[in-house]
């Protein structure tokens, strides 16, 4: 099993076997929050107030305050309203939602039921990344358990409140993680993001008011209701409430998911992950998933892991995916792979992203393959600037930011490549660090 | 055999499975089940031929081109025949830092094919994949879309090929 | 209203406007590709990025709602940088093959690239190449030029009502395509060519035949259906090279149907009649005009002298101009005959003499888009009137209850609130049931004209739902289609429709089959006094016929009988643009007259709008405008009142007789509706297919190559086919009381029980005679 360490909230108590089963979840205090709401008939607005108090921020990447988002849902809307969970985790480096579904699906289910109650929605869908099909099936099994126990479905626990929840799977398109692309995909179309406004809270799934949250966001809700917003907030730091799952990958000894309070120093997280593989020196970290700007070791080692601190350092906490790179890494090579990803995953509808991602990739590819030109570095930044802020969704920015940050912090490596038609980091060294197979000679 | 099935391209089980998916959505939103329907059809048929896509379109009351749009947008649908076992290796950066590229190269060597090729005996197709959301398990691979294999060292790759070869 | 400032100029715009709307209002041009006022907003090209005060990023004008007090700069550095950035991206993979591109000279990308493109490209990577697609005989593709604006796809989904194109694959590999191996078959498909801002979709028939700047653009009006779509006809060296829509929001908006667009090919058909001819001793001879006209005049005089003028009859095409129809009827009346008609496919004339005016649409065309409830009776609407169907489709998508009572459940590509499909003989009964329901809802007395019929029917649930929707709709309309006009009991259907409209406070209208279905009435091209109507002229053959643009076997209600009648005549004077073998057999004189593009004239469309046009080219060969030919013929016959020196003068004479609007009426007095018993046997459902309906479309090769240009087959629902022991694809022999035809059977569940559908207006089915009646079918 991947290294996993639970600290309080979403991965609390999941060390044992069969933690995904309803029975196990109940033993861990599961569904207590829902039962309390039903028994005490807590008014929906109180729940939203509690979520606001917790300072829970969206765990999907943008870090938007969840309570505030919930309050955008029209109260008195006649007709259907929907809740969607975004489990389309496909951002390179991110693998936390998979573990939540795998080991603690009922926390997510309970969170979504509570969200449905709070926002007056009768139906929810969980959109699950196509590549984790085993988790899709597990989630369906968990739903069956919950239905069986009358925790889901009509007249939940004998109350007047009904809520249906279904699983929907993706099938290989990163862009469906973008919330409006996710809605299009749920409607049975290509996952192409919608222009906003209108926002999902007024025009969402099937044109109805809809709230979309990340898996981890929903899974944090039962704790907040059970223990109170205050308690959750206090786990972290002001404006950065609670604990957060960090998916640590790359050159560490124990890659895995670590749930730690927001505000924990990066160095502690690195230690939890077993430190640098082979004791090598840290070179760079992408602190929030592949779309976040890369930060060099010198900046990174002084940071605490929370939204505000990382933003101040010029990057993003994003989805909490921490990609760790040591000194054996060729930064051109690393960027080439990321740029290929955005090129490959652009949905293709808007011009700057469709045309620009390919251009960026081809330039980085040339540089890596010893065909760089003197003007390329400036062009990389120029083309990135022409994409940024001009696309329908944030994938354009996501493609541009790595390029800009790699060039900014590791420009000398790119310049070396262009000049010497060869990596600054010798191939044997790269191979030693990552088993990277280098097919082209210098 | 029901009349519906008599002129169906898909088995009764597949149709039932599709119906279960359709039931998840509002009655006038059958189209929402298209991704599942294509997945179910692909599992039964091995890949999505035009006739299969057209059948799904008819079944869900969609224009065939709208179904084709979906089938060609999402990577995991195969619009061309693939080998009995489709192996998709993640080579995205987090995996690459922990041997993802290498696992792909090892597979190429063992199977004697490149990415997007199928072995002469029709047994294996090799694909390069994007992030599967399991980077902590690097290197990771998918077998026939639905089975994820983690920490694919040379040994484990050997073992996997041996199992699948049987 | 919201206040907005664009480039320093303040203006007020209605709530819900976008920045693009506001700019259009202010007359400020914002560059764009994907935006189109008639399509949904995609905001995918990103060309329209503008700077909005306080917004951190440039915003797309097409998709950004105006907020009160908004300040927009379309030319600031930030805006122009964004626009230039997008233009650079659009051009990197574009082939830049303007010199060989049909769109050259009218390409939005080319135009904007001049203003927003850089000089040399910074892009040094390999360019993308996209394989072309075969979309059928009308649309040619150069997919590498596509800029992915998706206008064509949205047009299909939103306007044509059928998604035939989509975007396959994703990202840079995205391609506009049809489903594997399929063509684009929509009857509105050509509009995609206009919508495509680059040269990715171009006209196949036009391809490579001219450069756009060599073409002169001239206005015209479509001679086909009763809408009278406005056209731009493009001409080079006196030859029509291309036809495009002329935007007219009140009529065709910015669309035309494929027949409007591609029928021009017939102008150069090998069958074009370009010299006068006379038949002597069974042999055709080219002659000069003088000889031909004198021959015609003397044969008319001869018949009048030998058999009496009442042995002369005129069958006039409803696709003729107002001026032609007027002069033709005047000429025939002048020689002393009252036998004139242009209603060639009509079979029930019992309302003649009882009508208060010319049957018309009953409301302005544009109003169709704003109705709350519409009942369409007896219409193959999509193929008979593609653009009216388009208007109703949009109305339906905006909540209008579009309902249908018809003899075939053809897919109208819109959601129908109610759909009643019955055999032709049951049409009257079903409409009566709706009227009965309406009377019950209104709690009103019914008119005497329909009382007996209503007493004999009962209203079912569906009839009630239709009546209710019409009653409740603030704006409601009952529209009668071509099938009603052709129906043997048309009068009853009209009377019932009028009563339904009265009871539900709806408007009632006749859609009208042809370009001058209303104009024929205005021109007085009708029998007078004891004169024979079109059917009577066929039923009791005359000694002499004057045919104006008519091919009797294809254009008449009973083509076989019409042909026989004409053939038996002693003298047949044919004025037309085409000389088919059949015409050669039946006529004695052929006078080549100019089709719409080569003459001037007017059409009065379904809503009573008089639309005049000029010739866009010279007449081909020795052909001459029919109004001139008729004038000279009248002069030779020494008739008075033909001193016209222009078609405008003829028009003035027609219109001087009173306002057209005052002559429109769907009221008929003194007639009583009746129920006919259903005949025993399989009833024929005959449509007039879109690309066979008139002499021009029949001769347009590209239209004939489309799916709608296929020869008719025998269609019946699967149950009936099984009952007949037939399978789809079987060769069958179809018999009527007048003859038989060899066809192929096809299963079509839109055909009601007890009926077989066999199209008319095609050589292969002429032998079956009447559009109506019963048929027998057996395996061939
Ligand atoms: C290209 C792109 C990919 C995204 N992928 C994901 C994802 O995989 N999972 C996710 O939860 N959010 C993803 N997001 C963010 C979502 O759009 C959305 O903000 C989020 O699901 C909201 O949930 P939260 O408020 O709970 O974070 C993505 C955004 C973009 C622009
Ligand atoms: S930015 Fe890229 S992914 Fe997002 S809508 Fe535009 S083309 Fe699609
Ligand atoms: S015209 Fe606005 S984005 Fe295309």
Tally the beta strands of chain C: 32
| Spatial ordering of strands, largest sheet of chain A | 1-7-6-12-9-10
Main sheet: strands, sense, barrel of chain A: 6 strands, mixed
Q: In angstroms, what is the radius of gyration of chain A?
A: 22 Å
Biggest interface and residues each: A-B, 61 and 51 residues
| Low confidence ranges of chain C | none
Distance between the termini of chain C: 70 Å
What would the principal axes of the Cα set say about the shape of chain A?
globular
What's the count of strands of chain A?
12
Structural class by secondary-structure content of chain C: alpha/beta
Helical content class of chain A: 40-55%
Task: Give a list of the ligands.
Answer: flavin mononucleotide, iron/sulfur cluster, FE2/S2 (inorganic) cluster
Largest beta sheet: strand ordering of chain C: 14-13-24-23-22-15-16
State the assembly state of the protein chains.
heterotrimer
Tell me the series of helices and strands of chain A, N- to C-terminal. Answer: EHHHHEHHEHEHEHHEEEHEEHEHEHHHHH
Indicate the proportion of strand residues of chain C: 15-25%
Report a brief summary of the structure.
The complex is a heterotrimer of chains A (about 450), B (about 170) and C (about 775). Chain B has about 170 residues and is an alpha+beta fold.
Give the helix/strand layout.
The complex is a heterotrimer of chains A (442), B (166) and C (780).
Chain A: E1 3-5, H1 22-27, H2 32-40, H3 44-54, H4 66-71, E2 82-87, H5 96-103, H6 105-119, E3 123-128, H7 133-148, E4 164-169, H8 179-186, E5 210-214, H9 215-227, H10 229-235, E6 243-250, E7 256-261, E8 264-265, H11 266-272, E9 282-286, E10 295-296, H12 297-300, E11 304-305, H13 307-312, E12 321-326, H14 331-345, H15 351-368, H16 376-387, H17 395-420, H18 427-434
Parallel strand pairs in A: 1-7, 2-3, 2-5, 3-4, 6-12
Antiparallel strand pairs in A: 6-7, 8-11, 9-10, 9-12
Helix pairs in contact in A: 2-9, 3-6, 3-10, 5-6, 6-9, 9-10, 14-15, 14-17, 15-16, 15-17, 16-17
Chain B: H1 3-6, H2 12-22, H3 34-45, H4 50-60, H5 64-73, E1 85-90, H6 93-96, H7 100-111, E2 117-118, E3 124-129, E4 141-143, E5 147-149, H8 154-165
Parallel strand pairs in B: 1-3
Antiparallel strand pairs in B: 1-4, 2-3, 4-5
Chain C: E1 2-6, E2 9-13, H1 19-26, E3 49-52, E4 59-60, E5 70-73, H2 77-92, H3 108-116, E6 139-141, H4 151-160, E7 165-168, E8 175-178, H5 191-195, E9 201-203, E10 216-221, E11 230-236, E12 239-245, H6 258-262, E13 277-280, E14 283-286, H7 289-307, E15 312-316, H8 322-334, E16 340-341, E17 373-377, H9 381-384, H10 386-397, E18 401-406, E19 418-421, H11 427-442, H12 448-455, H13 461-472, E20 476-480, H14 482-486, H15 490-504, E21 507-510, H16 519-522, H17 534-539, E22 544-548, H18 552-555, H19 559-567, E23 571-576, H20 581-586, E24 589-592, E25 601-604, E26 610-613, H21 626-636, H22 647-655, E27 682-685, H23 701-704, E28 714-716, H24 718-723, E29 731-735, E30 740-747, E31 755-757, E32 774-779
Parallel strand pairs in C: 1-5, 15-16, 15-22, 17-18, 17-20, 18-19, 20-21, 22-23, 23-24, 27-31, 28-30
Antiparallel strand pairs in C: 1-2, 3-4, 3-5, 6-9, 7-8, 10-11, 11-12, 13-14, 13-24, 25-26, 27-32, 29-30, 29-32
Helix pairs in contact in C: 7-21, 8-21, 8-22, 11-12, 11-13, 11-15, 13-15
